[in-house]
Amino acid sequence: MKKIRLYIIASLSLLVGLSSCSEDFLNIQHTDIVTPEVLMESQDNIEMGLNGIYDLLLGERGSSDDLEQNWNLKPQIAFSNYPANDMQPDGWDREFSSHTWNADFYMFAPAWKRAYRTIDRVNLFLENVEKIDPALLENGQTTKDQLTGEARALRAWFYTFLCQSWGGVPMLMTGESYVTHPGKPRGTTEEAWNLIVEDYEFARDHLDWTPRNGQYGRVTKGMAKAYLGLAYMYLKRWDDAKRELLDVINSGQYSLTPCYGYIHTINRKWQKESVWEIAYNQWSNMGWGAENVNIDAYWYAAQMCASLEYGGWGPWSTSYEFVWSHEPGDRRLEYNVVQYGDMNLGYPSRTLGESGSAQIGVTNAAAQPYWGTDILPNNYDQKTWRYHPSQPYGALPITYMRLAGVMLNYAECAFETGDEAEGWKYIKIIRDRAWGKLEAGAQQEDGTNSIFVTLNTDPNKEAPDAQTYYSSYKRSPGRNGGMANTFRGWLPNSAGTGDSLISTPVSTNPNNQNHRVGIYERRFYESPVDYTPYTIPVWKVAVMMERRHEFFGEYSFWQDLCRMGIAKDYLDAEYPRNNIQHPQVDQSGTHEQVVERLKNFDYTGLIHTWRPNEFDPNRQLFPIPTVEMDGNPALTREDQNPGYN
Fold first, then answer.
1. Using an 8 Å Cβ cutoff, are 184 and 178 in contact?
2. If pLDDT is split at 50, 70 and 90, which confidence band does 42 have?
3. How far is CA 610 from the centre of its chain?
4. In contact, 462 and 437? CB cutoff 8 Å
5. How does pLDDT run across 289-312, given as a tens digit for each residue?
6. What is the DSSP string of 413-471?
7. For the segment 387-397, what is each residue's pLDDT rounded down to a tens digit?
8. d(Cα 291, Cα 566) in Å, to the nearest integer?
9. pLDDT at residue 23 above 90?
10. How far apart are CA 62 and CA 616, in angstroms?
């Protein structure tokens, strides 16, 4: 892949227009490199320069860098989820769960560099666009402002990522790069957000609600206003944020997907709920042999996110506390998580034991609630695990901002401005969809890689009153607890003389494993540690918990906890501090001996999340990477975020 170099921009093909929502999106072919002066020769060349910025929204499977390959998966999901403990990583990423990361942690420097690489490209583009004669453009100054607005919104979006993660950062602006300004000092967080606001406001004022040229994947007024509202929230400009967010809600451009389970369906791009999305195309030759074709325009979340038992590389283990936090009737649980002993509904088949289905716990090692080298909970995020890992490539849209997020942000602003009725109104809208109210009359979507659900048909279905529920939720001391599966053995064969083995063909299982069908019984478990009750306002618990369930495994939860100042309250109530390790059943001996141990092991008082660390408020921001501290002469030791010196 051609790399960006000093004072050059990659020449890229134009974005492909759409005949309807979610048909096509970015279709980028890498060709030659041109000098900035060429931008001013024609509108086509200017468009090429802008597309060179959009190109950096996608991951680069041809890169040798892990984060470059998995951009939009790493580090975004890690930063937004892992510190909150609902999604628990393995391997190198365990530092997130224990809050023990440092400035040399492997994700920080590449994430920082990738963001500034994009910002540098935007700044160079804007410097040259400023010099363009509007007469070169189809609609003169209007088009020039639109091109500028798209670029400035993208710069603001990457600065939003940086400021959410690190607070105040060096703010390189138009015409500036780390080459021209290697000693750019770090400003305050407020200064950074104010510059971000200026970019989003310009984009808001010059872009349309529909994407330019009908090309979905471009920045729109809706995207700019939604993120402008968020930036205002960081500045506590609640009335301004409320106005922008309500405009998005009332614009008529967006609507909630009737069934929550269909939001993350593979190859369904730009659904009506998407306000800002990075879409990946479904190429016909996707697979292990496609590395040199359409190299940065596909996604392989199935391989990355599947359980280890099914050949995944890095399972996104889901805590039992997250499972237990759902109210009865909240369908987001079944759409979000495949639990230990149950089956992944995202697979083509729901028939237990059939090739293509995925029951969790069908091998001896995995027939227990915690397993693996890091002994993590045996539940998994079902939003991204939609393929068998031997067929890893699928076009799973990466939705950064949904209408549901705009609504919950608006609800928070309504509460902050004293408009409680409006806040509870929008919480109810989100909850009613979660209970299936909008499913009544919706079209049933069956088929490969679409979660197989039975839609609610009752139009009067409503969620319980949120204010009543959250007024009593964890308001007195107690313990977490809930239902979890207990292993009871394997389905016997037809003769009743041994285990029934379901042979999985090589085509769907690279290890050609013989999977047994596990027999599980649900029972109630109580965690062994008392939690600290919530004392924060009821509405804050409600907004927090609805975000927790709505955006599990997405791109905002930990940042919102920290922005609201309730991260400690959340962790102490949902994940009380303890030093009780998770057990694993001994796998030595014969198969029969292991099965007996599995069947008889008592997990009473052991189903919980291990959290030995006290809450450290300094961990609400990440440390500025060592490479930046060492390489930027304008930064001193005192510029490092507190707690990391």
1. yes
2. confident
3. 23
4. yes
5. 555 555 555 666 656 788 888 878
6. HHHHTT-HHHHHHHHHHHHHHHTTGGGTTPPP--STTS--------TT--PPPHHHHHH
7. 666 666 777 78
8. 44
9. no
10. 38
